[in-house]
Every structure is written in C-alpha cells, then in structure tokens.
Amino acid sequence: MPEGPEIRRVADRLCHQLVDKPLQSAWFAFPELAGQGADLEGRRVLAVESWGKALLTYFDNGRVMYSHNQLYGVWKLHRSSQEPSTRRSLRVRFQAGGHAASLYSASDVSLWKSDQIGQHPFLSRLGPDLLSHGVSAGDIEERLVAPKFRRRALGGLLLDQGFYAGIGNYLRSEMLFFAGLAPQRRPVDLDVSQRARLATVMRDVIHQAYRQAGVTNRPAWVEREKRAGATREGWRFAVFGRDGLACHACGNEVSRCMVTSRRLYYCPNCQSD
C-alpha cells in the first residue's frame, strides 16, 4: 500500500489538474453521493491535501471530499475526451478545463462540511501528518515522550497512525536505520540526543521520500549501487528489502524480523543503540 509520501504526490498531481478551475462536471458512483455531483458543478477546487493515506479535496462551497484508496484505489488524470484504458470500476470523476481526474476502485469516499471533517471516524484517530501539518523536529521530540507513546517499542510505534500519520513499513525500517536505533527501544529508554536524532531523521526521511518518489537511500550509496548494475529496487532503500545483503554503512549483513506482523529490516551492527 502507498505510504504518506506517495499519497502526498498524488495530492500534488490532483492540485495541478483541478485547483482554481471551475468544475464542468462532478460524478459519483455511490448512491448516497450521486445526487450531490450537481451541487459541485461550477464550483472550484481550493486545495487537495493528504492526511496519512487519505486525501481531502476542498471546494469553494465549504464542502470537502474524503477519499481513501485503500489497497486498490487509484487516481488517473487524463483529457476529458480520452477514456483511460483500465478494467477498474470508476467511482468518482471531476472534469475541469478539458481535463479529468478519475478515481477507480476506491470504496471509501464521502462528502463533509469543511468545519466537520475532523469528526470523520478515520481522521479523528490519526496523529499529525509529517508532510502536511508543518511538523517540526521539536514537535516530534515532544510527542515521543508523551505518556501515550513513551513506553511503546519504536518498531510498533512508528506504524501507529495515531502517533504520526503516513509512516508505513518501508519508512519505519529506514527511519530506525538512519537513527541507529534497534526496533525494541522505547522513547523512554533514549537519552536527549538520541530522541533528537530520531526526530530529525523521521522528518528528513519522509521528506526525502516525498521529494524523490520513494527513494530514502543516501546519494553516495545510490550511485555505488547503480555503478554495480543494481535495479531501482536495489538502490532505492538503505535497508528495507535488503536482508542478507551487505549494509551500505558497515558491510555487515542486513537482517529481517517481524514486528507487528510486518517485515522490518535492520543492521544489527549499525542499530546497536
């Protein structure tokens, strides 16, 4: 499933396609929304924002559309006159300026008043979004030592969307590696410098993944792997998916374990703290 950086990039593409253009049409496949498309025609999209793995599309009439792609949903951007080649089921379509944004296969879509969107049952359980909510390293340090989180093992905590939204499996492994921390460590076990390092790494890694389309590895290590003939999956990550291979930093073997029923990759030597 895409993680926060990938969803944020989708939001960027939708913004480019839709923002500040009067909607020529709005269509919903869902019976409970079908009659509301006409209310959006002629309206403008003000913004498309990501919150974790959800997208929020804001309209100038005070409405906002919540959508979550879940496992199979996908947005396709295309000319209004050219139907995408797909066997997926169309769920939502917005047309503006001769172009269209079409959502396929998603099953979780709803319309809300903008001042009530925080009451959505999924969003109300989410923590802040590291990409969309202006989170600083200092904010992360404070949240790490909050009573609700301070005694949680980091390997599980980083996947808890109530802690910070948008961190998924590959980001968890990469963040812990670059912070030099073992997954069983807890925020309460860390000293001030370790918490500060983790907070900075969390913010830096997710922003790099956003800017570089999912790449979290260091540039020098990427270039080394490329020269050796590695494919993108071979140079994209520092540790994720690299069990049995040499750690880029120390040369020891990268290991894999299961934490919260998900794969976690780490270097036992570099993450000895």
TrEMBL record:
Domain of life: Bacteria
PROSITE patterns assigned: FPG_CAT, ZF_FPG_2
Domain called FPG-type: residue spans: 238-272
GO molecular function: class I DNA-(apurinic or apyrimidinic site) endonuclease activity; damaged DNA binding; oxidized pyrimidine nucleobase lesion DNA N-glycosylase activity; zinc ion binding
Gene Ontology biological-process entries: base-excision repair
Gene3D superfamilies membership: 1.10.8.50, MutM-like, N-terminal
Domain Formamidopyrimidine-DNA glycosylase catalytic span(s) in chain numbering: 2-95
SUPFAM superfamilies listed in its UniProt record: Glucocorticoid receptor-like (DNA-binding domain), N-terminal domain of MutM-like DNA repair proteins, S13-like H2TH domain
Keywords for the protein's UniProt record, in alphabetical order: DNA damage, DNA repair, DNA-binding, Endonuclease, Glycosidase, Hydrolase, Lyase, Metal-binding, Multifunctional enzyme, Nuclease, Zinc, Zinc-finger
Record flagged with keyword Metal-binding: yes
Keyword flag Cytoplasm: no
Record-listed E.C. numbers: 4.2.99.18
Similarity section: Belongs to the FPG family.
Identification of the protein by name: DNA-(apurinic or apyrimidinic site) lyase
Source taxonomy: Bacteria, Pseudomonadati, Pseudomonadota, Gammaproteobacteria, Oceanospirillales
